[in-house]
């Protein structure tokens, strides 16, 4: 066995021409013995509840603040377009 030549073909993946691998054990479960959807609905319900409840404050607080600001702005706008609001606006200018 001489020095490797450049651009020489070594073999396909897993068959590189080296010594055989020893001591590697692989375990697998038959696809017929698995239950891929076992507990899927139960876990989906509780995982969804857990994830939504952990992120609720990040959504509820900004949305409630935005609703408050929009309601105050609408009330102020309606007041300014009333007779008393126009008088107050003219008095400020």
UniProtKB/TrEMBL annotation:
Coiled coil: none annotated. It is a single-pass membrane protein. Keywords: Electron transport, Membrane, Mitochondrion, Mitochondrion inner membrane, Respiratory chain, Transmembrane, Transmembrane helix, Transport. It comes from the Eukaryota. InterPro entries: Cyt_bc1_su8, Cyt_bc1_su8_sf. Its main location: mitochondrion. It holds the Pfam family UcrQ. It is found in: Mitochondrion inner membrane. Component of the ubiquinol-cytochrome c oxidoreductase, a multisubunit transmembrane complex that is part of the mitochondrial electron transport chain which drives oxidative phosphorylation. The complex plays an important role in the uptake of multiple carbon sources present in different host niches. Component of the ubiquinol-cytochrome c oxidoreductase (cytochrome b-c1 complex, complex III, CIII), a multisubunit enzyme composed of 3 respiratory subunits cytochrome b, cytochrome c1 and Rieske protein, 2 core protein subunits, and additional low-molecular weight protein subunits. The complex exists as an obligatory dimer and forms supercomplexes (SCs) in the inner mitochondrial membrane with cytochrome c oxidase (complex IV, CIV). Belongs to the UQCRQ/QCR8 family. This is Cytochrome b-c1 complex subunit 8. The lineage of its organism: Eukaryota, Fungi, Dikarya, Ascomycota, Saccharomycotina.
